[in-house]
Amino acid sequence: HTTRVKGLPRAKGDHFASPEEIIAEMDRTGVDKGILQPIINPECHFQFSPTEDILEICGQYPDRFIPFCCIDPRAGENRPDYDLSWMIGYYKERGCRGMGEICASLSLEDPFVLNFFRHCEAMQMPCTIHMATRHYGYYGLLDDPQLPRLERVLKQFPALIIVGHSPVFWAHVS
């Protein structure tokens, strides 16, 4: 994650690294290219990094960064049957190669999230999800230990590529 302009600091007083700081770290560690993901969900951070900023940064450094887009599953008239495909298509046409990181504090099986996954699958848009197992003090798509909801979602959307992210995912995936 990065931001075009440093703004409101995170809770610990720090900021996301600038694109130039990320590139310096990539150079130091031998990474040629990386993915930049927007942050738009109010649950997880104080400063937002919208897809438009990520596209601008990736346009400045096309040999170093791949843009992802981010759409909140609750977007669109607050309806769990809203057609999100036009939004996904808009960003896909502008070069976004994936979706995420999705951090909304909703159940993995919430109607809004299932609708979101349905449209990501239809648009062939891989999706990075941040996962959590508790509501209070955590952010991310909610599941139970051993990730039974994720298993059901993967069965429901067999063509959807999900990239799991967060300590909760890594702790329970095995």
Cα(first) to Cα(last) distance is 26 Å
Low-confidence parts = none
Quaternary structure of the protein = single chain
- Mean of residue pLDDT values: 91
Number of helices: 6
Q: How many beta strands in the DSSP annotation?
A: 6
- What's the helical proportion of residues? 25-40%
Shape: globular
Q: Tell me the series of helices and strands, N- to C-terminal.
A: HEHEHEHEEHEH
Q: Could you describe the largest sheet, including whether it forms a barrel?
A: 4 strands, parallel
Radius of gyration: 16 Å
Structural class based on helices, strands and sheet pairing: alpha/beta
Could you tell me the strand content as a percent range?
Answer: 5-15%
Commentary on this structure:
- The chain has 174 residues and is an alpha/beta fold.
- Helices cover 33% and strands 13% of the residues.
- It has six helices and six strands.
- The chain has helices at 19-29, 51-60, 85-93, 111-122, 148-156, 167-172, and strands at 34-36, 65-67, 99-102, 127-132, 141-142, 162-165.
- The strands form two sheets. Strands 3, 4, 5 and 6 form a four-stranded parallel beta sheet that branches. A two-stranded parallel ribbon has the order 1-2.
- The mean pLDDT is 91.
